[in-house]
């Protein structure tokens, strides 16, 4: 996608990867509008980056999504990029009873929301000469982490949805890109200090480089072994990966 001259709306832009992408695009001169639930995070991001705008949005609320999208299209008629970044990741029990609240909130945030947000903007995006939808999935969509089975399943589903959507939009002005991060140092699963995770700045830097030429997926180097796994040897790979991280699973 082109990295300049855009008007970009991003969900979950007040922290972690969302804030990193918002700042990177803002620093390149794009107009950026962030959203999220925690006003304090949005406010801090605005103060640190004069020129970024913010709106309050809980992406699990379909009515709010429609209202916010209509207001944004009215206030920013040049809006041409939507980044579905908001996500939650909670440890679960695929070997036992999965808590209803975890199930509904995870599927609503990580899968239903990107579909609903995109649906709310899609007709407007089609009117733009050049536009893009970016979905932030995860390498765990390709190799599930057994201790976060619902999360991993939502990201696999988002990968699938991205492919369908890309196919359906292939003759339009709307490009569909999937960013599949590896483990990155953010608040997700309390990973901000996690040595084995990729530093956030490095992730954002590599992602921005890759975004410029990507046509389907945006993968930093560290994500590629996981992305390349699915195939006939998948089952062994999933076992090895989970054995390697079993300590993390127990801690989580
Ligand atoms: N960090 C990693 O290792 C990693 C790896 C692969 C994929 N990812 C993906 O990257 C994305 C960003 O995560 P992150 O690592 O940057 O973690 P993060 O700092 O916790 O960011 C998650 C963001 O999502 C927003 N969010 C969550 N629920 C929301 C809701 N109901 N409505 C609106 N916003 C909501 C949060 O804002 P509020 O709480 O203020 O609403 C927050 O800004 C997620 O989709 C995650 O799955 C992360």
Record the SSE blueprint.
Elements: E1 7-11, H1 16-27, E2 31-36, H2 39-48, E3 53-56, H3 62-75, E4 81-84, H4 100-126, E5 131-136, H5 149-168, E6 174-179, H6 200-213, E7 217-218, H7 224-227, H8 234-244, H9 246-251
Parallel strand pairs: 1-2, 1-4, 2-3, 4-5, 5-6, 6-7
Helix pairs in contact: 1-6, 3-4, 4-5
Bound molecules: NADP nicotinamide-adenine-dinucleotide phosphate.
NADP nicotinamide-adenine-dinucleotide phosphate binds at residues 11-12, 14-18, 36-38, 41, 57-60, 85-89, 109, 136, 138, 181, 183-184, 186-188, 191, 197.
Report a brief summary of the structure.
This protein is α/β, with parallel strands linked by helices and about 250 residues long. The chain has nine helices and seven strands. It is about 45% helix and about 15% strand.
Question: What is the 3D shape?
Answer: globular
Structural class: alpha/beta
- What number of structural domains do the residues give? 1
Number of helices: 9
Compounds present? NADP nicotinamide-adenine-dinucleotide phosphate
Order of helices and strands: EHEHEHEHEHEHEHHH
By DSSP, the count of extended strands is: 7
What is the averaged pLDDT score?
96
Specify the biggest β-sheet: 7 strands, parallel
| CATH architectural type | 3-Layer(aba) Sandwich
CATH homologous group name: NAD(P)-binding Rossmann-like Domain
Kindly report the CATH topology: Rossmann fold
The percentage of residues in β strands lies in 5-15%
């Amino acid at each position: 996608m082109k990295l300049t001259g855009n008007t970009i709306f991003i969900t979950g832009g007040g922290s972690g990867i969302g804030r990193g992408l918002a700042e990177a695009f803002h620093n390149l001169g794009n107009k950026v509008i962030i959203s999220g639930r925690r006003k304090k995070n949005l406010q801090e991001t605005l103060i640190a980056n004069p020129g970024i705008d913010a709106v309050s949005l809980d992406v699990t609320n379909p009515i709010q999504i429609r209202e916010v999208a209509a207001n944004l299209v009215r206030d920013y008629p040049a809006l041409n990029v939507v980044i579905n970044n908001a996500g939650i990741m909670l440890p679960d029990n695929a070997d036992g009873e999965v808590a209803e609240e975890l199930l509904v909130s995870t599927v609503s945030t990580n899968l239903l929301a990107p579909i609903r947000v995109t649906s709310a903007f899609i007709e407007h995006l089609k009117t733009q000469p050049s536009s893009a939808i970016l979905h932030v999935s995860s390498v765990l969509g390709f190799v599930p982490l057994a201790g976060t089975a619902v999360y991993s399943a939502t990201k696999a589903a988002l990968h699938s949805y991205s492919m369908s959507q890309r196919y359906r939009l292939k003759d339009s002005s709307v490009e569909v890109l999937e960013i599949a991060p590896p483990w990155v140092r953010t608040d997700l699963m309390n990973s901000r200090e996690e040595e084995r995770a990729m530093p956030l700045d490095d992730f954002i830097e590599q992602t921005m480089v890759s975004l410029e030429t990507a046509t389907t997926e945006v993968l930093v180097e560290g994500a590629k072994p996981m992305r390349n796994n699915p195939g006939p040897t998948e089952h062994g790979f999933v076992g090895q990966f989970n054995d390697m991280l079993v300590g993390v699973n127990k801690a989580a």
